[in-house]
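Researcher: Please translate sequence to structure tokens.
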Amino acid sequence: MPKRVLQGTVVSDANDKTIVVRVERRFTHPLLKKTVRRSKKYHAHDENNVAKVGQTVWIEETAPISKNKRWALVPSA
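Model: Translation complete:
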């Protein structure tokens, strides 16, 4: 099964080797037929502490790293 990959914005890099990424999704409301924005925050592993607040990054699903971390930063090419 392929790993899920999400794009989001870094909202916190205060912790060592961890970033918090806000991922936004858009969908049409079933009744109102209006586009709705929902966001969710994910804790992601950042081995080299390269991501900074405000950056747009890609994260991918991984095996559990800690209690909250199930995602890892995708290294940029």
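Researcher: Any highlights?
Model: The CA atoms of residues 7 and 49 lie 18 Å apart.
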